[in-house]
Write a structure and sequence with these properties.
Helix content: 40-55%
Number of helices: 9
Mean pLDDT: 95
Number of strands: 8
Structural class: alpha/beta
Shape: globular
Order of helices and strands: EHEHHEHEHEHEHHEEH
Strand content: 15-25%
Length: 217
């Protein structure tokens, strides 16, 4: 069983649909806590370390063989907390790491596009970490689609992704555009830019499914 740690309920049907398309038979268990993101935005991601550890302990107790954190803002916290909360047998993955690796492979100029300012720094740090792992140079530039998030909070998903796509289409001088939040993924299909636009849910779930099926934990 794969546990998914979300900070919004909108991610549940998205990952269920991806599972049905790409990984039929994979059991998912969703843990949703919207307060994690709101607290991380106010106080910084480290402020939710204790809450994340508690959720990870619960996921393992309920039979998780791997955990996937779908929130980019607290992804690094989940990875770090995972070593203490789950031990080496149950890997804790962040959904955006495979996307970051693909961005680094695309070229040295990476734009991190986010609708939340709190997501920019963690995602940029992740891209830089993947560049170090790959031994590749990278220059990361953050772009904030600040008109998009109010649409998300209002429940206007169409307006949200249209604004994200428009912000991506305005990006120039880049080898890859990273959609920093999992909720931004539908915008990938709406962009017209020639710059590769990368989203996290599908490759992130694929990595987590491999972790479950590898027998670890």
């Amino acid at each position: 069983m794969l546990a998914l740690l979300h900070t919004s309920p909108v991610h549940v049907p998205v990952f269920d649909a991806l599972r049905d398309e790409d990984h039929p038979g994979l059991r998912l268990r969703h843990f949703v806590d919207a307060t994690l993101l709101s607290t991380a935005r106010r106080k910084g991601p480290r402020a939710v370390t204790g809450e994340v550890e508690t959720l990870l302990h619960r996921a393992v107790a309920e039979g998780a063989r791997a955990v996937l954190c779908t929130c980019s803002t607290i992804g690094a916290v989940a990875e770090t907390a995972g070593a203490a909360a789950t031990g080496p047998g149950v890997p804790v993955l962040r959904v955006d790491r495979p996307m970051a690796a693909a961005a680094v492979a695309a070229g040295p100029r990476v734009v991190v596009l986010a609708a939340l300012e709190s997501t920019l720094a963690p995602t940029a740090a992740l891209v830089e970490d993947e560049a170090r792992r790959a031994g590749r140079p990278v220059t990361v530039r953050g772009v904030l689609a600040d008109a998009a998030w109010p649409r998300f909070e209002a429940g206007d998903s169409d307006g949200y992704v249209r604004r994200v796509a428009a912000a991506a289409d305005r990006v120039v001088d880049a080898d890859a555009i990273v959609l920093a939040q999992a909720s931004m993924a539908p915008a990938e299909r709406l962009t017209t830019t020639l710059v590769p636009v990368l989203s996290s849910p599908r490759p992130g779930l694929a990595a987590a499914a491999r972790a479950v099926r590898s027998g670890r934990g």
